Amino acid sequence: MPVQTRAPGGALLLALLPATVLAQGTGQEPVTTLPELEVVGRAPGSLTAPSVAEQRKQVEQTPAAARFIEAEEFRNRRAFTLRDVLSDTPGLFVQDRYGQELRLSVRGSGIARGFHLRGLEVLQDGIPVNLADGSGDFYQIDPLALRSAAVFPGGNALAYGASTLGGAINFTTPTAHTAEAPNILRAEAGVWGTWRLSGQVSRILGEADALANFSHFSTDGWRQHSRGSYDQFNANVGYRISDTVETRFYAGIYGTRQLLPGALTLGQALNTPRIANAQALSGNQARNVQVERFANRTTVRLDAGQLDLDSWVIHKSLYHPIFQVLDQDGLTWGIAPRWTQAFTVGGLRNDLVVGGRYFAGTNDALQYVNNRGSRGALTANGVQRAQNYEAFLENRLWVLPGLALVAGAKALRNERDYENRLTNQQYSRTYDGLNPKLGLLWQPRPEVQAFANITRSQDVPDFSDQLQTVNNQPLWVPLQAQRAWTVELGTRGRFERGSWDATLFRSNLRGQLLQYTVNPSIPASTFNAGTTVNQGIELAGRYDLWQGLLAAGDRLTLGQVWTFNDFRFRADRQYGDNRIAGLPPHVLRTTLAYAQPDRFFVRPALDWVPQGAWADYANTLRANSYIKLGLEAGVTVGPGVSVFLDARNLTNKRYVSDLGTITDASKVSTAVFYPGEGRSLYLGTRIAF
């Protein structure tokens, strides 16, 4: 059958868009018919879930440093953690610790956070995954259940309602309309008892569609006491009520059982990296989590724009023996309307986004003496409550055909309450804010952009920050919100043989939320710093060195990613102008890929950290520098059938992957280093039919 396309822009737009985009459509009336062709993995999408091409288009037309990652980029590799998804994205520091636990920081968000996530909003299908206090985990995001990811640093995430220093990352799961194939099976195995099975099935049934994805991962772990297993289930069901109304329900169930190896001293990390921390062993430290997530998006296309109404509920149960046994059970819920419209003002094109969010949560938080991983005597019993009221808008006015003025703002009110049931004491704090945004976008050609923005961000401390451990008891600390003004200048574009993405940014912060480790087994304490500066460069480029080298359509592509971080105190009474501990100043990744499309590829990769991160704010102890080599390869052995190899750290380099932060290495324990994994090899196969 012929493939039909729908496009809003007439002959000029048709001339600019590639055939694969035309084959997907944009949801308007049909205007042309193309010759018969077969399109693989390029489904047209629906009202609630746009096509992948439309997702990319929306991100690349954002007048700021936004980045888009399609699942094809990490399909034939060991995509277990978010590092495997985001490693080729500039501006992100993402490093593994153990299991799926990692450090994810954007422009210094959570720079000193030695555990989990803060200062960055994680979205799945545009709906928040974070809990109501802003904290978050990574276990709910299964790389094998993704169709794409989009990174919006800082105030660039305003159109999604986020206004933290780090911004937001939106992970989009496939639907039956956007899935690569109706059925996908995957199996892989590797060193240290690692194996994973995954399956996905999707169907379109008239006006309804459904998709389900399940993955099981199990490993003995590279380090002692790091065995883990993960079960991740994602599903969605959509129904098109009419040509202008569609609703989609999402469901997710995630189970994590992870032993914790703990952090080591620098000497241990470099000389005996596979051992576990002694306290992790004696306390049989672990993190066991069960999460259920349900969400809905209903889209109504009106004559006056489009209305998206999101709602969600997340239940999380945590059993976490560390310095004590943390036993928590919490519920988060929310609703978020969002209206978008494109219209003209005085003959000028205008794009408007207006939205609001209310989300709240409650968490019963108990603590017990840790008897080798089992509950002992009760030491703490409290309830944590969070409520958030947010309203935002962003407007883009094209004052010239290639020049847009961008303005927006977000008003917020965040309420945090804690009740200590053992002492009958209650504590609360309310944070109000108004975060404006102003920017310019110059687009001389559809494939080239230059932009400048100034945005204000506000990060509210979560309960891990506000409830600090003193004498093994939770103590409420009334921290201030972190506030920052960020300026960014950048350009991005693509041409026949490659692409580029370059951004310079500078954030002036007040009250930056920084942390320091008191004891390797106790969650870090948080404080508000004075004046600090986060600035840096985010650079990525790709260039086809050769095309048609050995066969028609093949190419040899050089890729380079460079993230430069210069984060410092400013005239601090204790630390002067020292660098803020936590992140290395330079992170580089170079790849050289040879590919024959639909046949095979091979891609060596070099990861280089020229200087390790400071571990202490006194700047007396830092991690080592390192160069790490890897190799990825894959071959298509039949229609829809591929086999891949992923070899990492080929030279078995000993290095520090991540670390916690401390005040002064000469005065406190320095067991804050997480050793990077040694030489490893993984093989897998993937079948799509």
From TrEMBL:
Highest rank taxon of the organism: Bacteria
Domain TonB-dependent receptor plug: start-end pairs: 59-168
A GO molecular function held by the record: siderophore uptake transmembrane transporter activity
Membrane-related topology note: Multi-pass membrane protein
Domain TonB-dependent receptor-like beta-barrel: 323-650
GO biological process, one term: siderophore transmembrane transport
Signal peptide: 1-23
Keyword Cell inner membrane among record annotations: no
Protein's name according to its UniProt entry: TonB-dependent receptor
Lineage: Bacteria, Pseudomonadati, Pseudomonadota, Alphaproteobacteria, Acetobacterales
